[in-house]
């Protein structure tokens, strides 16, 4: 199958920065408006923390170092990420964005370029940031700007008569004519470390919020004669910060739409791009069809001509060519071969391994089991801890009882065996090749190959029996 890898975002290939890049991510915010015990930067977007998205984008730029400034919920935030390749800088007191960057810059060598990102601004594309870094040129300051429909709340970019950027003014400090400026600051900027350190050292907090504003470095750079370049982003949504659940949902909706558009651009037929959630990496072949309300999580690989019915959750699965997933299945950590039929209403749990042509039908649960080629479990069954051969038929209502109340045991069912309806196989047990288990049997000992095994009370009929008759009241 011709695979196309759909990444969570479209990143340009990482470029190398001759000067070396240091990314500082501000993540000390408390996020009061989230009204949650979970720190803001750990709130999930597409199933992963906001900060994870920002770190991933930062990594794609191949920086020499990534420093995360953390504060509120500190340990919880740190513990959410593997320690490798990240530097953590504690901002014990939240004295402003400038103060936050001041905490991190001592760890950056003077000859590197610093890029400042925000842990709660997850949609920025690597290509945009590459453009910003290039705009630093030889020693200037590059600021990422936007022209949003509603500039309320953002810092405004003040230019002189010649059109050069002279400073940023925060909304709360702005004069009425400055509030009319449409060009806004995204907060993201890049500058050579040596110069940024000089400018940061001059920050003051005599402003409306009593904070050390990072954005004041714009005015300081301009005053020192440095070139300040405004790099405007095409779509202001890319710079959307997430402060509450409404903004979180807005960003999620953008993510969802873009992921669906990437799938469609790569040839997948998506029944309704507004009703598919891609929360991970999807690799797929050609002529795949995905119906409405499907959620794809983790790493999902779909072969050619795979069809996924409505309402399915598919997490970390590999699905072979020509396999059809019927509606309302929950598939988690399964490997499914080619030309299989799954569902409707099937549940596959981690390490379920299904060979080509397997059929798993309605209300069947498969856990930690393998089914060989063309084996079928079509109705109302539990298949747990079992190794099942080829062409086996698991009859309706078969239960593989793998748990004795303390330990789990394995069951082996060899090729061409049939289990009757409503049979219970008490593990550990082996069912021989071509064996048949009669309907309603509870088998607890080995079932021999090629024979019929019955383990149920024999049917008897009582002659001359008469039904009790209701006593008449006296
Ligand atoms: C900031 C910019 C503003 C810009 C806007 C874009 C400043 C002074 N202003 O304003 O020009 O238009 O972003 O959204 O920078 N943080 C810390 N430590 C602190 C303070 C903040 O880590 O001491 C983090 C926050 O968690 C947040 C980010 O920095 O992720 C931005 O801080 P916030 O207070 O939201 O700044 P804004 O007022 O939005
Ligand atoms: Mg903000």
Q: Please give the CATH class of the largest domain.
A: Alpha Beta
Which band does the percent of strand residues land in? Answer: 25-35%
CATH architecture of the largest domain: Alpha-Beta Complex
Distance between the termini: 83 Å
What compounds sit in this structure?
Answer: uridine-diphosphate-N-acetylglucosamine, magnesium ion
Concise account of the structure shown:
The chain is an alpha/beta fold and 474 residues long.
Describe, in plain words, how this protein is organized in 3D.
The protein is an alpha/beta fold and 474 residues long. It folds into 2 domains: 5-239, Spore Coat Polysaccharide Biosynthesis Protein SpsA, Chain A; 245-453, Hexapeptide repeat proteins (UDP N-Acetylglucosamine Acyltransferase, domain 1), CATH 2.160.10. It is 16% helix and 30% strand. The chain has 8 helices and 40 strands. It has a 15-stranded mixed β-sheet that branches. Helix 6 packs across helix 7. The longest helix has 21 residues, at 245-265. Mean pLDDT is 95; it is low at 7-15. It binds uridine-diphosphate-N-acetylglucosamine and magnesium ion (MG). The site of magnesium ion has 2 residues, from loops.
Helix-strand layout with pairing:
Elements: E1 4-6, E2 21-27, E3 44-45, E4 48-49, H1 50-59, E5 65-70, H2 74-79, E6 87-90, H3 97-104, E7 113-118, H4 126-134, E8 141-146, E9 156-159, E10 165-169, H5 176-179, E11 184-192, H6 193-201, H7 216-223, E12 228-232, H8 245-265, E13 269-270, E14 276-284, E15 289-290, E16 294-302, E17 307-308, E18 313-315, E19 318-319, E20 324-325, E21 330-332, E22 335-336, E23 341-342, E24 346-348, E25 353-354, E26 359-362, E27 364-367, E28 370-371, E29 376-379, E30 382-384, E31 386-388, E32 393-394, E33 399-401, E34 411-413, E35 418-419, E36 424-426, E37 429-431, E38 436-437, E39 442-443, E40 452-453
The structure holds uridine-diphosphate-N-acetylglucosamine and magnesium ion.
